[in-house]
Amino acid sequence: MHFMGNSVRLCIVLHNHQPIGNFDGVIEQAYQDSYLPFLNVFEPYEHLKVALHTSGPLMLWLAEHHPEYLDRVKALVAAGRIEIVGGPFYEPILTMLPSRDRIGQISKYTRWLQTRFDTAVTGMWMPERVWESQLTRDIVPAGMQYTILDDFHFRAAGWMDSQLTNYFLTEDDGHVLRVFPGSERLRYLLPFAAASETIEYCRQVAARAPDSVLLFGDDGEKFGTWPNTHEHVYQRGWLRQFFDLLTENRTWLRTSTPSEVITETPPAGSVYLPDCSYREMTEWALPVDRQAVYDSVVHELESDSRWPQIKQFMKGGFWRNFRIKYSEANEMYCRMLDVSRRLEFARRGTGDKTLLPQAEDHLYRAQCNCPYWHGAFGGIYLPHLRNATYRELIAADNLIERSNGRHGEWVDVTTEDYNKDLYPEIRLANDQLIGYLAPATGGMLYELDVRGIEHNLLATMQRRPEQYHAKVKTGCSQSSHETASIHDRVVFKQEGLDKRLQYDVYSRKSLVDHFFDLEATPEGVQRGTAIERGDFAALPYDAKLRRGTGKIQVQLCREGNAWGIPLTITKGITLFAGSHALEITYLIEGLPPGRPFHFGVEFNFAGMPSGADDRFFYDARCERMGHLGTVLNIESTDYLGLIDQWLGANVQWTANRPSGLWSFPIETVSQSEGGFELVHQSVCVMPHWIVQGDSEGRWSVAMDLIVTCEHEPNSRSAKLIHSSSEAVGV
């Protein structure tokens, strides 16, 4: 075919992705709404070509649930109409991975794709387009010739839009990679504007820069799954109109694949790009107060006549700072790094290496990016995604332990800077449980893994301000454009969300030590308005380890104060080989005679949702006390059970002296592609006492936290508690 002089190559690159841990029903709906209908519309247009990146989690799901879809894609690959784009198998942000895992993920997925589709895979999708130059030294050795970023990356390097009409070369450590600038303008035109607007935009580019290359690279879910898009794209015929126009204009507007472009077209030159992502991601990565300032400044400057010259220099934050913005993201990240490191040690060791490929796959699955950040999508605020990450990490941990020869009953303790803050944390583990303690942060227990069900009971989420909460407070209504981008929509999935905005001063973890006013109420504690009267909740404790036959005790001590009165708290956490229980003891010293103190110990339990009949509280008689979203205010008890029958988690708390007990749900108001919603994050359980010292100014209590993998409530595990003096070792 003869092409006019003012021609344009248009690369349409679809990125289809579903995260590890997403529900089958959600993925099936996306398949019916987006993936299948797009293929149905595309197939008859024999002159059109696209490139398709399907993330590994989704690809494996399709291979199991809809292999016929993959067979149709394979036929189109053989016909030269679809190029398969590779990438890291489980869609991790590459900058958060060790080099060995970057190369491993990319190489593993390339082999899978080449086997399934009988085609060469030479290019890769860059997850969330998070880019740092040092990635080049791993991407090229992994076999990739090109990748796709955003034009925003190039503008941040000083390039102008008029220059971004082809691909470029970039280099690091002697390795050369081709990089395509994906068009932000096309991202917002497709599919939200009339199909003719995209054709007109391409015509304008062809007029000013003949023989250009334009690349659209974005979520395939925009074509049917995003709110209101299925009706717009398919029922009203937008996609057919677009494909008809592409076909009618193919004498000058040619659809190509990236591999065709790099084979037939020389690069526009070389470029070195700054650490960057797409524009919206850089905004989301900012601290909340700076994000509000950024939005305000942009809004003000948009009306300035100089805005077209200014905007290319406007850039937000850095993706890695999501781990600062959300401590929970850093906890997952550091746990992932530790599993990766231990796996590498196992590879070099003398243990049973037959288990390691399976452990590696669990590790790679745990690196899926979605729960490590938050923007217009639910991300880290979605409990099922966080739970899935920890499930994979714990599964990998279990296999590594077996590979290293650990069988039967055992217990061990290690100290290391596990969360990368230059303070040592403590890993207390046996064949049933893994606990991580942070002496420098209130001696809190910040992770508690149940090996048998591969679940972290402390995959919690702190309630914190978000920039979009300003919209929740003002009650902004739905965007007037019914097929608006999710970046522009404002939808409330429940009423009264403005009244549910609550913020926490401290992380929602366990063994968090509080002093309140005597008249403090559970409502005040739940809403975060109860005043903290002590300095034990987040400040450093000293730590000592005590080893005995078949048991290890961590002893944490802090000299602090409550109401300005000097007090010392010593808490001991003991774990026995083979045990499902943490034995926990508290000793408070320095209590002045006749002075009462209101003392509480906070526990949180994640992954045990509210409002379900098979997830409930129960008492020592195994009688139900309400679902796990129930607010409890018990005057005196020494026992509480929580059970999630679907998960198979049975948690029992017992004490050797009765306490008051508060329990309430921790819920966040967060944003997802569907709108603003209330999400149950964890169950807070807080035994509390009015404490008075004995003749020596001492007070103590002993508790057990028993976690078993059972589907029915029981009180069999509740046992006699050692005396506090014996348990603390005083």
Describe this structure in words.
The protein has 730 residues and is of the alpha+beta class. Among the domains are: 8-277, 7-stranded beta/alpha barrel; 489-728, Beta-galactosidase, Chain A, domain 5 (Distorted Sandwich). Strands 15, 16, 17, 18, 19, 20, 21, 22, 23, 24, 25 and 26 form a twelve-stranded antiparallel β-sheet that branches. Strands 1, 2, 3, 8 and 9 form a five-stranded parallel β-sheet that branches. A five-stranded antiparallel β-sheet has the order 10-11-12-13-14. Helix 8 runs parallel beside helix 10. It is elongated, with a radius of gyration of 28 Å.
Q: Report the portion of residues in β strands.
A: 25-35%
- What would you say the CATH architecture of the domain at 8-277 is? Alpha-Beta Barrel
Largest β-sheet summary: 12 strands, antiparallel
Topology, number of strands: 26
**Alpha carbon gap, first and last residue:** 89 Å
CATH class of the domain at 8-277: Alpha Beta
Question: What general outline do the C-alpha atoms trace?
Answer: elongated
Number of helices: 21
Classify the fold: give the CATH topology of the domain at 8-277.
7-stranded beta/alpha barrel
Q: State the helical fraction.
A: 25-40%
Radius of gyration: 28 Å
Q: Unreliable segments (pLDDT under 50, ≥5 consecutive)?
A: 477-481, 719-730
> What class would the helix/strand composition place it in?
alpha+beta
